[in-house]
Amino acid sequence: MSRACNEQKKVTVGELLENDDTDLEGVSDGSSNDGISLRESLFEMDSEEETELKATKKIAEESNKMQVFLFRNSESMNNISDQWMPRSFIDGKYVRYDLNQPSELPHRTSTIAFKNDPPLTVIGLRMCDMLGEAL
């Protein structure tokens, strides 16, 4: 077969029926539905294909859903005291003055980094653990 015969332009049923002046009533499509006109058969096929496509798309969307939870609202040292930094850093070393303070701090390049991103309190960290377990 020539290449031109193998190439088919895809058109929708609506375009086919709008552009075709031929009366399709009473014309058989050659399938087992010989009593149904070609127009009815085309609309039926389009409807079934459309339904199947929607179902496939819905399944794909549901299976690809990924949920990401971001939480920032936990008890930080700023919630306990605005003066936690001057009281906690003595001679550049961290000193725990309250049992709700973490026993050690995460590594940062300087102590100034804790001003914008304070550590969580012991209770705040426990709340995060419990929330994570619940999810």
Would you kindly provide a written description of the structure presented here, covering whatever features stand out?
With 135 residues, the protein is mainly α. The chain has two domains: 8-63; 77-134, no CATH class. Helix content is 47%, strand content 3%. The chain is built from seven helices and two strands. It has helices at 3-6, 13-19, 38-63, 77-80, 84-88, 113-116, 122-134, and strands at 89-90, 93-94. A two-stranded antiparallel ribbon has the order 1-2. β1 (89-90) and β2 (93-94) form a beta hairpin. Residues 1-6 have low confidence and may be disordered.
Given the helix and strand composition, which structural class is it? mainly alpha
Rounded Rg? 34 Å
**Main sheet summary:** 2 strands, antiparallel
Mean pLDDT: 74
The fraction of residues assigned to DSSP E strands is: under 5%
Shape: elongated
Strand order of the largest sheet: 1-2
Number of strands: 2
**Could you give the order of the helices and strands?**
HHHHHEEHH
* Total domains: 2
Q: Tell me the number of helical segments per DSSP (H or I, 4 or more residues long).
A: 7
Termini separation comes to 60 Å
Low-confidence stretches: 1-6
In helices, the fraction of residues equals 40-55%
Q: Main traits of this protein?
A:
135 residues; mainly alpha; two-stranded antiparallel sheet
List the helices and strands and how they pair.
Blueprint: H1 3-6, H2 13-19, H3 38-63, H4 77-80, H5 84-88, E1 89-90, E2 93-94, H6 113-116, H7 122-134
Antiparallel strand pairs: 1-2
Biased composition (Acidic residues): 17-26
Region (Disordered): 1-35
GO molecular function: phosphatase activity
